[in-house]
Write a structure and sequence with these properties.
The complex is a heterotrimer of chains A (about 290), B (about 425) and C (about 400). By secondary structure, chain B is mainly alpha-helical. Chain B is built from 18 helices and four strands. In chain B, the strands form two sheets. Chain B has a two-stranded antiparallel sheet with strand order 1-4. Chain C has a domain at about 155-290 and about 370-405: Rossmann fold (3-Layer(aba) Sandwich). The chains are: A mainly alpha (about 290), B mainly alpha (about 425), C alpha/beta (about 400). The interface between A and B is large, with 50 and 57 residues. Chain B: Pfam families: BPD_transp_2. Chain B: Its main location: membrane. Chain B: It is a multi-pass membrane protein.
Chain lengths: ~290, ~425, ~400
């Protein structure tokens, strides 16, 4: 029973990992931007839920989802326009640039909202849990899982069914060819960055249900998010999904079986990813091209 | 955007444009000596012991920067885990000093309050000063070689390598923190008083230690410089700029990269070992993700393609951090963040790049300019990052005359410009 | 010949800048020292950035409030106190560096600062080497007594041991230990295990998570399997928020499995959300609700200066006390000179928000009243038990037979 419970827990950890990594599969995966400020966009989403609280009461989490998407997305767009667009083609420089920006954003949050954590109240219907014959599934975890799956489905539909999404994929797979075929790659880049950052905002709202809301919120999640994307393969939606759930379940079982396993689990996850990259150096899924590198 | 790039031969990604005249050729060594004198003779005379200690600390970071300049600037490997090697060297030294302090049969202070009753086996050999000194270099180098062979052979590079090395730093910190009885946990190792006969509480002895750090930095700098102008160094740059082409020529890029990575790790280890007596403590906070990033940002700001730029950048960034935070304890993060952002946007090749542009501009004023050098977006960097995006690399690469960018003085006396063509005899 | 030293100019310029600027940074007026001039400089050294800022910023605020109040009342020795604030940046070597800067550049009379044990351990050699004074305002793991540090927070026998006594009194037979992976929880848990062994309690499990960890469902599942009577929680900062939110949503109630926390104060309760932690126990020496006129004025002054929504907490109060205790010692010594202040401090007794505290001259800790509190749905903490009188600090637990093997 405990094992089954761990499986559920693993899946819910996976859902969190998926949510925080989803935006990165676009900005990192498609555009090659190593966005260290992604964590701060998550934070922006969480603070959006906090700010909406006095306006819309305890249902703020629901209202905050679209608002946080827009807020974080616009922040991302501003970042892209002001800074990152100078850096396309130099992914590693973007890392340093966005790290500087993440420092600034953290300090901004500290100055606006104060250094201590703030509270976002969960709506009443999210506080209980589902009892499935001894396996307890908290509603907030169900919510996060549903949200994660919903985001994945929405993105999948967008990428495969909508014109903009197909353009995005075209740019992802071959920028030059897309450009000569008449795709305005720069516009696509902006839109991609908007969506990627917006997804971080959504993740931020979800995280208010289970974690702290403070200026350093983003730093708690950023490394895990990058690991998921690397393991899944850059720009690969299904890779990210599988990697997130695999790492979540691995994490939960290692932590459960080993006494005092939380630290150990993190180290194991790292070792597994290194081993995995030995087998598949480009992550789980790779866009096959005949190009060399 | 790529069209413009293609017409601008890469003058900056390589070790540097040619110093043309004899006076310019002498400028380098002259400045090396001048800076050396400044550090050795002037600084101890004018700075208070506190400021000299700080300068010593910056210089330790500068030693790491030399290694990063080699691995990243020359080799294109963005290592976000340099703190790990810094830490391995530092802990090797720290363990020895702690044992020295505890005396034969004694336990280091933190073990006493962590409830450890007998000295762990891992610690025993570190009582030997020679063993400890050897480990300062061997530990980081071994880890770097193992990791390097694993990931480089599988052609894990660019952003993948960056993220992996960052995760390595995170995992290493968690391991260190979790073994409190063995490593001192989050506290790390603190309170060092003696260092190979030097009393670290005495300003005079501390000054001597500072001079040791300067000497080591000078040595490491010359070593890295010698290495980067050797055939190996040229091969390394070739791997950075076109790994596959180097492979087709019969070399094994993984080996070349691993060697450079290991050398940079060894330098970081030495720096860590000097940091311990210089600063008097070492904790996981010095080797984590943030610390590793800070090591890197100095190099980026100084200019990663120039070893001197890397050293200057490390000094400048750490000095700025001290001054900003002293001037404004509440807002210094803004200043620091803004400095990173501004330099990255307006001087992507760092301050050394700006200096080069300025020199080039002066040169061009003398003879009519044939090409735009001070292009706001530098040309060489996509390839320098190791993983050019599919977009920009393809049209640029074939057109780019790689060897044209190689300065005359970088070419071996044989006069054969192509790097790999110089020696087909043995893969490195 | 180093022809390849290509951009030596940069290096030279940087070095020159460095030298000239550091030369200038030697403030000539600083040499006047803390004792002369019209003000007395004191250092305030907490993390204002980085992960620990969450906790430390408000301690700085409380210390600045105390300085302001003392100045308004005429200062000490006829001089105003001038705070020099530095940022420890959640980085231990930075704490050491800034401590040295405050001592040798600013020539402060004393320093108030630190939060984590790691920051204190990093600063300790600096203060001992320079024979300068540090006032450390946070509860900690004990086993330390530096002659150059005053400890105004609780040591283990003023917080953890009373917490355990309370659990024993309540008939809790089995406990589970949850903590962040660093020095305080590990040392605290060693003490708890020794106590449990001597008092017929069983420790059903011991879990540590990395600092900043936010995923507690597995730990909660282990709690559900182990079914302890109570949980002893030594998690730090952010992790508490995740732990309590996830504990609650798993259906474990405070009534079925109460936790005793030693790092959750009023401020943390706000971040966790009172409804998530209401009904759980905490162990401290001070709560905002602690009765007494002195506390009323403190709470009122703090809210007046920083906003009505602010809460006061134990570490803030300990930092506030530290400033007053130092000022009192200086008045008694008639000088800010370190050895004189140390000597004068022994036995100084002061009416503080938590009640009467007295400096123990033996180990430079303070006598403090232990209080167990119950978190209320409104975010305040209600005292449910106290030790009746201030407990003599015993950092090495010498007075406890069961603790002989610990240090």
């Amino acid at each position: 029973m405990a094992t089954l419970n761990q499986l559920v827990i693993g899946a819910s950890i996976g859902a969190v990992l998926l949510l925080i990594a989803l935006g990165l599969t676009f900005t990192f995966g498609q555009m090659g931007v190593i966005n260290m400020a992604h964590g701060e966009f998550i934070m922006a989403g969480a603070y959006t839920a906090y700010l909406l609280q006095p306006l819309v009461g305890t249902q703020s989490v629901l209202v905050a989802l679209p608002v946080a998407f827009a807020v974080a997305g616009v922040l991302g767009l501003i970042l892209e326009r002001l800074a990152i667009r100078h850096f396309y083609g130099r992914p590693l420089d973007t890392l340093l640039l966005t790290w500087g920006i993440s420092l600034i954003l953290q300090q901004v949050a500290r100055d606006i909202f104060g250094a201590p954590n703030v509270q976002v109240r969960a709506p009443g219907w999210l506080t209980g849990g589902l009892d499935l014959g001894g396996v307890r599934l908290p509603y907030n975890r169900v919510f996060i899982m549903v949200l994660a799956v919903g985001c994945v489905v929405a993105i999948w539909l967008y990428l495969t069914r909508m014109r903009h999404g197909r353009r995005m994929r075209a740019v992802m797979q071959n920028r030059q060819l897309a450009a000569v075929s008449g795709v305005a790659t720069e516009r696509v880049d902006q839109l991609t960055f908007f969506i990627g950052s917006g997804l971080a905002g959504v993740a931020g709202v979800a995280l208010t249900l289970i974690g702290p809301v403070g200026p350093t919120l983003g730093t708690n999640y950023i490394v895990d998010a990058f690991l998921v994307v690397v393991a899944g393969g850059l720009g690969q939606l299904r890779g990210a999904v599988i990697a997130a759930f695999a790492l979540g379940i691995l994490n939960s079982f290692v932590e459960f079986w080993v006494d005092n396993g939380a630290s150990f689990a993190k180290v194991v996850v790292f070792a597994v990813i290194i081993a995995f990259l030995q087998l598949r150096p480009q992550g789980m899924f790779v866009v096959r091209t005949r190009a060399l590198s | 955007m790529t069209g413009a790039v293609a017409t601008v031969p890469d003058r900056t990604a390589g070790p540097g444009p040619a110093p043309l005249s004899r006076s310019r050729r002498l400028a380098g060594p002259a400045l090396f000596v001048a800076v050396g004198l400044l550090l050795v003779a002037v600084a101890p005379a004018v700075l208070s012991p506190f400021r000299l200690d700080l300068l010593g600390k910056y210089l330790c970071y500068a030693i790491v920067a030399v290694g990063i300049g080699l691995a990243w600037g020359r080799g294109g490997m963005l290592t976000l885990g340099q703190g790990v090697f810094f830490g391995l060297g530092g802990y090797a030294m720290g363990m020895h000093l702690k044992l020295r302090e505890a005396g034969p049969g004694g336990l280091p202070d933190f073990m006493v309050w962590s409830g450890v009753e007998s000295l762990p086996a891992l610690w025993r050999p570190f009582a030997n000063p020679v063993f400890a000194l050897a480990m300062v270099v061997l530990l980081p180098v071994t880890v770097a070689v193992l990791l390097g062979l694993l990931v480089f052979r599988q052609r894990v590079r660019g952003a993948y390598f960056a993220v992996l090395s960052q995760a390595l730093a995170a995992a290493f910190v968690i391991l260190l923190v979790g073994q409190q009885g063995l490593t001192g946990g989050t506290n790390g190792l603190t309170n060092f008083q003696m260092f190979y006969g030097l009393d670290l509480y005495q300003p005079g002895d501390k000054r001597f230690l500072y001079l040791v750090v300067v000497a080591v930095l000078g040595t490491m700098f010359l070593l890295a410089w010698q290495l980067s102008r050797s055939r190996f160094g040229q091969l390394l740059v070739a791997v950075r700029d076109g790994e596959d082409r180097v492979r087709f020529l019969g070399y094994e890029p993984a080996v070349v990269k691993t060697i450079a990575f290991a050398v940079s790790a060894g330098m970081a280890g030495i720096a860590g070992a000097l940091f311990v007596p210089m600063v008097g403590l070492l904790s996981p906070a010095n080797l984590g993700i943030v610390a590793s990033l800070e090591l890197l940002i100095g190099v980026a700001i100084g200019g990663r393609f120039s070893l001197a730029g890397a050293v200057g950048g490390a000094l400048l960034v750490n000095y700025a951090k001290t001054i900003f935070s002293e001037e404004s304890a509440d807002n210094w993060i803004y200043l620091q963040g803004a400095m990173f952002v501004i330099v990255m946007i307006w001087a992507p090749r760092g301050l050394a790049g700006l200096a080069a542009d300025a020199r080039a501009a002066v040169r061009h004023r003398r003879r009519p300019p044939s090409r735009s050098v001070a292009a706001p977006i530098p040309s060489g960097t996509p390839s320098a990052n190791g993983s050019a995006p599919p977009g920009s690399a393809d049209p640029v690469d074939p057109a780019r005359p790689v060897d044209d960018a190689r300065p005359a003085d970088q070419i071996e006396p044989t006069g054969v410009p192509a790097v790999a063509a110089q020696r087909g005899e043995e893969p490195a | 010949m180093p022809r390849g030293v290509r951009k030596p100019l940069v290096m030279a310029v940087a070095a020159a800048l460095l030298l000239s600027a550091t030369g200038c940074a030697e403030d000539p007026t600083a040499a006047s020292g803390a004792g002369s001039g019209s003000t007395i400089k004191v250092g305030i050294l907490h993390s204002l950035s980085g992960t620990m800022a969450i906790s430390e910023v408000t301690v700085r605020d409380a210390e600045l409030l105390a300085i302001e109040e003392i100045n308004a009342a005429g200062g000490v020795l006829g001089k105003k106190i001038e705070p020099v604030v530095e940022d420890g940046a959640s980085d231990w070597p930075t704490f050491a560096e800034k401590a040295q800067k405050l001592i040798s550049q600013d020539k402060v009379a004393t320093v108030f600062g630190g939060w984590t044990s790691a920051s204190r351990k990093a600063m300790l050699p600096v203060f001992e080497r320079n024979k300068a004074l540090l006032w450390y305002p946070v509860q900690y793991e004990g086993l330390e007594s530096s002659p150059y540090i005053f400890y105004t927070g609780a040591t283990t026998n003023q917080q953890i041991v009373p917490g355990l006594d309370y659990l024993k009194e309540q008939g809790k037979k089995s406990i589970f230990l949850v903590g962040s992976d660093y020095v305080f929880p590990r040392t605290a848990n060693k003490i708890i295990k020794a106590y449990a062994a001597a008092n017929g309690m069983t420790v059903l499990g011991e879990e540590y998570t990395p600092l900043g960890h936010t995923e507690y469902s597995t730990v909660v599942n282990k709690l559900q399997q182990a079914k302890p009577d109570a949980v002893f929680n030594t998690l730090n900062g952010d992790s508490n928020v995740a732990f309590f939110k996830q504990l609650r949503s798993s259906g474990i109630t405070a009534a079925a499995m109460p936790t005793v926390s030693v790092s959750v104060a009023e401020e943390e309760v706000v971040g966790i959300g009172p409804e998530n932690v209401a009904g759980h126990l905490v162990a401290w020496n001070y709560y905002q609700t602690t009765s007494g006129a002195r506390n009323d004025t403190f709470v009122k002054a703090f809210k007046g200066k920083y906003g009505a929504a602010k809460v006061t907490s134990d570490p803030m109060e300990a930092g506030y006390n530290a400033v007053y205790l130092w000022a009192e010692s200086v008045k008694k010594a008639g000088s800010v000179e370190v050895e004189a202040v140390k000597k004068a401090s022994a036995g100084i007794s002061l009416e503080t928000p938590e009640g009467t505290v007295t400096i123990d001259g033996e180990n430079q800790h303070v006598f403090k009243t232990a209080r167990i509190g119950l978190v209320q749905p409104d975010g305040q903490i209600k005292e449910v038990w106290n030790s009746g009188k201030p407990i003599k600090p015993d950092p090495y637990l010498k007075g406890y037979p069961w603790a002989t093997g610990l240090s």
